[in-house]
User: Fold these one by one.
Assistant:
Number 1:
Amino acid sequence: MNQKLFIYQLLPRLFGNRITANKKNGTIEENGSGKFNDISDKVLYAIKANGYTHIWYIGILAHASVTNYTDYGLPEEYPEIIKGKAGSPYAVRDYYDVDPDLAVNVQERMAEFEALIRRTHAAGLKMIIDNIPNHVARNYRSLNKPQETKDFGEGDNNSLAFSQKNNYYYIPGQSLEIQTSHKKETHSSYREFPAKATGNDCFSHRPTQFDWYETVKLNYGVDYLRGKQEHFDPIPDTWIKMKDILLYWAEKGIDGFRCDMAEMVPLAFWRWAIPQVKQKFTGILFLAEIYNPSAYRNFLADNVFDYLYDKVGLYDILRDVSCGYKPSSDITFVLNSVGDIQHRMLNFMENHDEQRLASDFFLKTGSRGMAAMIVSCCVNTNPVMVYAGQEFGEKGMDEEGFSGRDGRTTIFDYWSVDTLRRWNNDGRWNDILLSDREKELAQFYKWLITLCNNEPALAKGLFYDLMPANYGNPEFDSTRLFAFLRSDKRDLILIVANFDDKAQDCTVIIPQHAFDFLGAVPTAKGILQPLLQRESESLPFHHTTLPIISVNSCSGEIYKITFL
């Protein structure tokens, strides 16, 4: 049976950290850091048992931090060009190295990571890591690159703002002057002359605190200052270097790449590089972080990328509906906009960039996000992602340091996450220290995800939206309810989600066209068998007289329809 992909996203620096100090702006010595070795066989088997097929490990590549590893031969760091004490996982300082924060023995850090790859695969899970192609840390220098490989910027003519042969863009004659709201104390002084363009397409020597000032943009042969003129023949040097980096990690057994800000890199590069990687490593996945719907189909054409982020579509509308800002009927319009490619969109309600469902800035409790998760998981055959701690209702309301109290779990600071730390339970990875509410939510996630892979109609079936048939239905609140069918031509499943803060009784109209489209032949009588609330009783029905369905607040139900 074809499985849906369920991706568990985690940041190892946070995930296994048991230290409770959590000092604001604390150092690694004060607040600690999770390690590769903390992701044990036991926790990997627990993740697998919860229904996940993949783990996306973020923060794997060596990135700039204020922690001094010069005793291990690593380059000196410069706090004034680093966000937070731990630094951004997306400011890579060596594409060919893993982050030393994550190693018990820094000198053996790559071996410890390779052991994690083996443990992940032994647990029956596949591994995704980040590819960060658009930008690097300002102090990028690779010590671990192959001997024959030249480093980024090595041989650049930095007197030119743009050259097809350069790896970076320059601001000739100008020194870097970062405009921050506060002066950072530092033991050293970073100098950059001439200044390089900043990662978020800031072609100024004076990036502000609102720019990605800790990064430098890579040059893929696009002259941004001359109308984005493309210089792709001969193949730019950056293309070759980045392809080799992808191959380096694929050779270690990585099963997929989540490509950071993929649309900031020319599509021509992806069309050139990805087929070469896939030719050598059959089945390897490429997932694009992308926010421009007009570019979606181009990025999917010819199977360049396998999947795309669905942030500006389904995530945004489910957030608005869950918060009561928009009617649930609007979900239909969003799904229609990607109807032909919806099966290739990655659904999620949390990731490291977004506010936690349970944060004070979103829904305040994780249980209020269950309706959104039911829709995300069941709406099609596409992959679904859960961010570590989401399943326990992690609030993300700590004030960690650089990140601040913003409803997100920091990626910039050394910290430990309350719910994950209690689930860790000194490496036992069980729920004994979780509250009853947290256990119930975790059980909901486990059962929902398991259902989606155990039921063929949910894993690989067709989708039929029931909202148009119910707009005029007086017994169906189309502003707070969302209903649809899934079928694999053998089983027929009805999903009803309730985004309201109170329980709803409803009757769902299923038109004859739905049965025709899904290849189902209704008989006079049937049974609705609840799959999510397993303690609930089955409901008898006549296909022309549907039963009244009771749907819990901020939740939903999944019914298998059986005709007698």
Number 2:
Amino acid sequence: MNKNYQYLYLLLLFFSISSIEAQEAKLDMAEKKYENYGYINAREIYLKVAEKGFESEELFQRLGNSYYFNAAYSDALVWYTKLFSLNEDQEEKYLRRYAQSLQATGNSKKAESYYNLFQEKDGLTAEDYLYLIERNSGRYSIQKLKGINTNGREFGHSFKNGKLIYASTQDTGVFVKRKNSWDGLSFLNLYEVELKQDSLLGKPKKLKSISGKYHESSATLSENGKTLYFTRSNNNKNQNQYLKIYRAELNNGKWKNLEDLSINIQGYSTAHPTLDKEEEYLYFASDRPGGFGESDIYRAAIHKDGSLSEPENLGPEINTKGKETFPFISNNSELYFSSDGHFGLGGLDVFYVKMEGSEVSNILNIGRPINSYADDFSFGVNQKTKQGFFSSNRKENGTFGYDNIYTLKEKENIQNAYKAIILGKVLEEDTGEPLVNASVKLYTDGKLYDSIATDGAGNYSIAVNYFSKYRLQADKEDYDSKEKFNKPREEEQEINFSLRRNTLALVPGTDISSLLNIKNILFDFDMANIRSDAQIELEKLLMVMQDYPDLKLEIRSHTDSRGSDSYNKALSERRAQSTKRYLIEKGISEQRLKAKGFGEERLLNDCGNGSACSSAEHQRNRRSEFIVLE
């Protein structure tokens, strides 16, 4: 090789290696910043690498996440789209994040398809969840809280004694204006302000006695207003991403005795505390090990001496593979929380569940207008006044901004949108009379779901899951049982039953064919011979007469209206005698049997002379009946 070319080759190789090493160094730097939650700086580095034409799943994941975690869903969508174009086979969390970014930016149809891939828990589709959301939408009126919201972030709902405690990035520092690397804003501090509904009565005041170097947010007050639980980020610059819950006591108008609670664990976040009505439990969110997703809702019992029990995870019915956070417990033991793991309208949505001991009812999205395409969280409501607060990063023009506090007014109670009704009647088949105290049982997946008895009019009504399929079984003593299936996804449906009696006293005048579910003995047109299908029914009758040797019957034969009356009378007589002979040939004594033909005298329908009835309608009248004589 020519020396000049050798030199040029080595020079190009050196620059190529240097370029690769420079890109790797940038990625390493971004990795460190990413792990420390300095997203803005990390994103800038990742962007520069991507602009050079580099492609990798890790690169697109990180870029997408850096926007996603700042609720910049439009930008997140760009990189998640590239990620899925590179490889469709992604972890479940990326399916969910991609679906939420699509939903938040108006691409609902595509969002549904990706969410359906992510959601495997209960078999419901995105369309099902949208139905549930609409069932509870429109129950609130909302308004942005005036005089508090700034150009930064404000959120919080703790309202006691006419004062709202909330978190804000408004910077009151004069000499030092510190910014955080998450969003470039000032650090959050807690403020309180006097409110009357949605009107300010005073100027917001910082809770200086608990203000630290970094973030304070998400406060909750005890009922007497003397104990405050709040969230604080670690006072360690290298661990600023981890959150802890602190407790403080009110002493001479100042918050003192700040306590780092035992539920906090090193290297994980514990945040967003709330108390139940009795103040027996502290509820909070955490990403600690052993959970079901990115962050879960927990609770810890508060002992009489103020110490806390080991945290208890609220379980997989509430917690998902995604993020559950910002819990709130109403005075009616209703848990409200925000989630991006349960299906919503985009970002974090507020959800509701009734806490009844260890039982968890259906989890419900509380609907629009509280929930939107954006992040909606920090919900709290007074069940007596039906007023409260929530926070959101929505903007009037449909884009995303910083968090603001909104007031809310609940106009209607939440309804269990999973609830549907199956109702109907249980009647006696022959008479059409209602059957009282008949049992209607519902089964699902082979197990008894519920059971109910009919009322005095034979009616029943039972609440079911709107999405579930059930097997309904109607029973009553002395009657044959029947079963039917409902149609899922109907809010109300009527399912009626007609039960045939299977035991009855053999009193004179009783039609035994109806009594013992023996079909009428049918004959072909103008024929008197026993058909093969009729022989099967006559075998049933034969067994009954053998079991009841004293039973005596009258065989009544009937024809349809076609032909003359006299001819039909004679034909029916021949049919009755034909039936009688069959039974005698089988060993039944002639003294136990009478036979009589009625011709067309007793038609079962309106198919008289000259009618335009079908063959099937005429067939109903060509029959034999068996009436108990004694």
Number 3:
Amino acid sequence: MSIEPNIKTTPPKLMRAIREAMAGTESVQGRLDAFVTAISAAMQVKVASVYLLRKGDELELSATEGLKKSAVHKTRLKPGEGLVGHVSLTARPLNLADAPSHPLFSYRPETAEDPFRSFLGVPILRGSRVLGVLVVQSEDARSFNEEEVEDLLTVAMVIGEIIVDDERIGGKKAALKGITLAATKPETLKGKAFADGLAQGHAYLHLPPVPPANLLSENIAAEETRLEVGIKKLRASVDAMVSGEAAGISRASKEIYETYRMFAYDRKWVGRLREAVHSGLTAEAAVERVRNEHRARLMKSRDAYLRARLHDLEDLANRLLRALSGEALMPGNKNISDDAIIFAREIGPAELLDYDRDKLRAIVLEEGSASSHTSIICRALGIPLVGRAEGVLDLIETGDDVLVDGETGVVHIRPLESQISGFELRQTVRGEMARAYNALRLKPAKTKDGLNISLQLNAGLLVDLPQLDIAGADGIGLFRTEFQFMVSDFMPKLKEQTQLYRQALEAAGDRPVTFRTLDLGSDKILPYMDPVPEENPAMGWRSIRIALDRPGLMRYQLRALVAAGAGKNLRVMFPMVTTVDEMIEARALLNREIERAKNLAQELPQKIEIGVMLETPSLAWQVNAVCDHADFVSVGANDLMQFFFAADRDNTRVSDRYDPLHPAALSILKFISVGCKMNDTPVSVCGEIAGRPLEAVCLVALGYETLSMPVTGIGPVKSAILALDAGKLRAELEPHLNINTRLSSLRETARKFCEREGVPI
């Protein structure tokens, strides 16, 4: 491994000493002995010692220069015992001019440390994990200066990295008796599930290129040439992505890599790099400078999508650094095991292609977001992805056994046998259930008491469309049109929008497709629109409010929808409507586009249905009035529930504070269902609860006959509906749907009913 970046602030003499110590021997013990000798000489101190943590959390003197050699592997300190134990416990340096007078000083006669007064101890860290303590001592009473403290901290970090790598590579032969430097304890972390699936395999740490050690160039012309060569190699590799097999996964994937190529060919970006090199920086330092400029600009944005774009730029900068280092930028060039699970802070869509798809089992990230390009690609490839696994890189080592649960966002590191057996059982059951659901694919979802339920799909990109037939869905109940706008750096042209909507209609055939108009604002801000700072964006200027205040964008989209629906049935739905007047205004905009198409003698859709997405309690209490102007109603359960309970569904501190099977929640859902039926207006539910079997059967019992959900929900929900007597469940629930109920949830009531009736949930 290269230690240049880690010790660039360390004096040359100490750096040379560390290098020579590394070259002298390959065993862990040999390296430790060489390190303490080198540190003692370079820092001109009498004593340099390394204490390492044993399995029982005791600190053991493992190497020393200046103390008695006979004390090595014999002197041990309990957690918090003595000055060394205190450094280990606090993970902070301790700098003393007169160590023996300190109240925590613990004298060990076998070390013969009597004459040494000054003491500097620093923790040996790997990530946030303390491996031990590095100590230097001298006879004279003095405090070490700030530079010496910083130098020793840097050396301790380098030692931690090197000795763990030595042990990992050398195995038991290289290990110190009783001491295990690499993490061994089982760990379980909870993150966010960004791509579904279960995976079992071995960890591989994805490390970005190290920052440049040399910042200033000695030959500007030579650095300019190096930069141009690096840019040429970078662009060639990106061109290969766009034209290669990986980018052909789906149209959405190809668009992502085409956007990535636009970055690589961006004149402003390349111009800034050239300016930086011309000013006297090395090519690598120029990349870092421009990267930092982008970071400073994009990190100020509160918009999740814009911040996600930062990672695309990071990916591009890392790729250019690798090109400058001489690395070949070829797809699948990383040497990984046949069951690799990649761990990284963040990984870009181009870096993803560096790994062989046939060997890659899953990805775990400390950061990441559901809307990132990497998440979209992973969903297209069927690679489980867990993000926001905070602190995971401090706990993992390459080669560790790992279980990744892309359903719940849980990651098991070095799992117990019981966890492995339980996980493998789930994998088996998941496979069997997938086969069982596939057998039901063409069977109508009909309850035992004769209700026909339409199970539809939530979609937003072309990659989602093949799932219609795979899952046996009855249509697309929610097509999120904003996704096309969010994966592009520029507003999609009218032709591009029309093409996407037409492809969705063609993929569905005779099945319905419900297009939701742009749902922007809150955490969904387009990269080519200036975000509007708001205290509470979820309840601010968003969705239909933006559309009605700035009707140009809405009419442009409606024009594309009318054109795409030529000769077909077209269903258009307006989101986040809070008053009937908003529905009337939105419908008027669509009518204007229909009239325009008529005047231009363009072919019109055979049938046009205009609906509303009911997501606010205010509109729920106007259900009779809104049915006068809507051809159908779709309940957006996610937002309706978060507004109803005043709990942000994306805030982990409060998102689990409410239960959608609370009597009050089911009461408002029943009120909407009854109101729509009284007005002979079709009503459906889309959102997470529609795709969960227990919640879904409750919705059916309340009168909802159309449910729209993620593809993973269709099989389980259909299986539950086929075993359901909706009338019986309704009779169980309805007595509690009134203001006199004292229950805080009907979940247990519904669950017991399903167990008794044999409804699989």
Number 4:
Amino acid sequence: MKLLHFSIIKFTICLIIGIILSKTLSISVFYSFLITVCFTALTVFLYFIFKKKNNYLYIFGITCYLTFIAFGLFISNSNEDLNKTNHFSNYSSRDTASTTITFRVRELLKPNAFSKRYYVDILKLNNNTVIGKALLNVKKDSLQIQLPIDAIYTTALPLVDVKKPLNPDQFSYKDYLEKQQVHYQLYADQTNLLQLQNKTHTLFGYAAKLRNHINSKLNPYQYTNDQLSIINALILGQRQNITKEVYDNYTNAGAIHILAVSGLHVGIILLILNLVFKPIERLKNGKFYKTLILVILLWTYALIAGGSASIIRATTMFSIVAIGINLKRPTNIYNTLAVSVFILLLIKPNFLFDVGFQLSYAAVIAIVSFQPIIEKLWTPKYKIVTLLWQTLTVTVSAQFGIIPISLYYFHQFPSLFWLSNLIVIPFLSIILGLGLLVITLALFGLPKTLLSDAFGMVINWMNSFFGWISSQEDFLIIDIPFTVAQVIVSYIFIFCLYALYHNKNYRWLQLTLISVLVLQLSYTIVQFNSKSNQFIVFHKSRNTLLGKKHNNQLATFSTLKTAETNAIIRSYAVKNALQTMPSKPIINLYKLNNKHLLVVDSLAVFNLKGITVDYVVLTQSPKLNLTRLIDSLKPKVIIADGNNYRSYVNRWEATCLKQKLPFYHTGKTGAYIINY
């Protein structure tokens, strides 16, 4: 492929391989640095040896690639906060009662049902100056005010580990936070936090103040909460206040990217700024000054919009595009993409594992690769039809890149995505331009006008339209099982299809057909692996939730009426390609081939004769003498689920310890799985 003739693309691929290896291999920062130095020295040495011997240049090329792989390994390891000696985890005291923590509020996150959440920078642990991020959970209160960005607080609360999910195949918030360099969290309320005086401010703090100022200036325009939340998401990059209903509507309509300030928004803003500052080109060295202004304004906007991962990567990419366009330098879009990826991963290697990062670049690569091919299929006669056709081809092309990743992470496919984008995308530049104009007028103190009302009506129309699309449930395909292996094979198939179109030879036809067969084989393997039999005691607070997996079906037994629709069950069923059966009431005895499992509930009935009990599940806090049960039934394992009083669980654990019998509490060890 011609793409691989560009050195920066090959080096970027090698860098990515090195970053992935750093997550799979346990290599210290020192040894990864040593490996990088050795390969760099070897590459330089071979360059002088083989620079005039073309027959051996491939040896130099191999060492060059290995150097970039080693470099990816090193920067990934060195970028990990836990590997730094001044990280606060290295100063943690075992006596948490005497620990004093000082932190700076860094970023406001979307709140959950119980608390407002923030990323904070830990500044001091007792008297030690430290670094590192943590998650702060502040209990919700009707009188609670939002913690200001850059505000510094001190507290005596302990830092605790972020817990892994207690049920199989659940979304792991712990893994997600680790990719954000967050390994610990704090739980607090307003009374636990003491604000300190702070005379220093960061750029993020100034940006937050500007966003707050903009919102205060928009108050006279009397926008509703839904309107204001969409304006903040669409233009200011803040999605924290969007209601779940509105957010789900955009997601189910396949238009959630509209609410995430990313490449689409930054690209439109670049076009608007490029048009506004075009007169500067008439000055001497005008193109240079214009390019400088564009780049500065793009990064200023990125900062105002919160500086999230999606905004930073989009701004990096379009800064390179702006430089290439305005300085009339010949550019290749794949080169531009590779340069932006390379720069971003050098700064923050963990971007590679960010879902938004993967989706953004997959979509852009797919668009520039497939859109010209699809567009050639039809040439409309009228300009308006041409615009709609181009929008449709861009939307469809993007799906080639994002469908495999979307299926893996979200397990759903909004089949009306084309309609959502076809109606909104052609007008998005006008909507963004109108929004920027309204905000500018608000900052100058202009009162409510027909223009501000029109913008509010447009936001209402968008919300209503996507709500209607979302309500067409027959067109939303959900609970699609998709594995990592299937993602990889899908991209191999898409790549082979693209290569076959351009080369049209027997070799690429063979590879395309082979990739189709491998994709089919992967589905067969998933179905085969799902045929094992398991009985699962899930962890569910204040409820009993049991699952019996047989072949490709999952039967559920629970105190919940529709347990099969519960998120715990759905997640497990989707990941394992299982068909869920309607939930049934819990029974006391389950036969698992030649084994038996007894459920002892609040009635505490366990009088069995002639049956050997292997497992006992205690649920609904039964009042029983556990020692008598053990002596009577002689089980091999005692399991307590999440539907028990903590005091009871502690007492049962002490009894089992005394009896030297294995005891498992799902609230501590997670769901208990029995293979039979």
